[in-house]
Amino acid sequence: MDGRILAVDIGKAAVCAVLLAPRNGGLGVETSVRASVRDGSLLNALGEAVDLLKQRTDISGAFCIASFPDAQVFYRLVSMPFSDSRKIGKVIAYETEPLLPFSADELFFDFTVVDGLPAGKGSGATVLVCAVEKRKLLELIEQFSSVGLEPDVIVPRGWAMARVLAGHDPETLLVAKDGEEVTVLIVSGGQVRFARVFRVPASFENGDEKHLHLCAGLRQTVLSCEEDTGLEIDPAVVHVACEDADAESFKQAVAECFGKETRNLNVPGYPTVAGSGGNGVGPALAIGLLARAGKPVLNFRKGEFSLTGRWMKYWSIFGKSFAIACVVAILGLADFFCHMHMLKKEISLVDAQRRAVFSACFPDSHAEPSSDMMRYEIDRLKKAGGFSAGMDRGFYLIDVLNDISRLIPSDLDVNITRFVAGADDVVISGDTDSFRSVDTIKNNLGKSGLFRDIVISSATMDRSDNRVHFKLQAGFKS
Fold it and tell me: In the CATH scheme, what architecture does the domain 5-313 have?
């Protein structure tokens, strides 16, 4: 955080935003924007306001505080038998549930202790409770996220304005109008003591009927406050917050209802921004100054809806995914090591077979068996056997036998009865079923890379067994 405060006010007709920056030991307005809500699309207005801000300045690093519309907030005054805030926080939802149209599981609660009011019995406390539907709160947070904003604090709109106003006028009333909803907040002793939201339908055709309905709602609110708190509500000045087109007529109607002096909401020190005479961002400015006060506030952005709480909500999913990944990794490693173990066993088996062959062929050799040692021992035996120098070829008789076996077709009826290898050639004798088979054997052996000049020395038909007895002679290539 760089010390700047970005305040976003969510109204029914418009989204207003004010960026406050440190200036001369206090806060000054760096820029402000207003985007109208068209066709009921809050997301489009919010996106337009953020785009306008980003065009004018860099808003990254600013502390963000946003308002929550009063039309969706339930204000209740509840007496508790104890004053410990931690104990109150644990039971406030269940204490307030009978006063609300929704179950406690569907709502998010926050509260503030109202000083100086009787708790009914013992050393208890009276608290002002605010409740909102979790579904609507989540919708607002997701709309902010979609335009690249993550509010650090979300406060009730009317309460936030009254809380700032209480610092300058400790005995007053604030009447805030947002579309058809009117919020009345009663300030006494520098505290927001009471709050109520009621509706003035726009469908009234008669202006006097709307005026009567408004006055009835205002007077009922004051009477309810006096009955619940035991206070006498008689402020010298009534403040009005209304950014609608009929702001002046609404202000006059409030003045006639109370018979008191009526002023537009005006934050001292910011006359060009606050109030209906400015650019309509007075409520946003008040909300921004609330963040500067450094005092506890009603905040809907905590618990499961805080920035960390939203991540914790998906922790179980992350945990399961991580566990599955670990299991897959462990199984993969187990399979790898098992495969390596099997390969080692196969290598050991082949090595044992190689040693057995070497020992059987060369029982007198004590050398370590290897292919090079095998060739060495074969050459040594060949020389010891008196073979001529011409026998020193680049191949062995096993290669010759392999070529004969490979090149004579397996489906050919032939018997090899004699095989004689010399220094320069090899003689093959045998019998077959026809003279054509003899030619086939000769032609196929000609494909070998070891033979040259293959000649049929003899081929005769033996009447006793009705088979052709042949003899082939093939010279070795040098």
Answer: 2-Layer Sandwich (3.30)
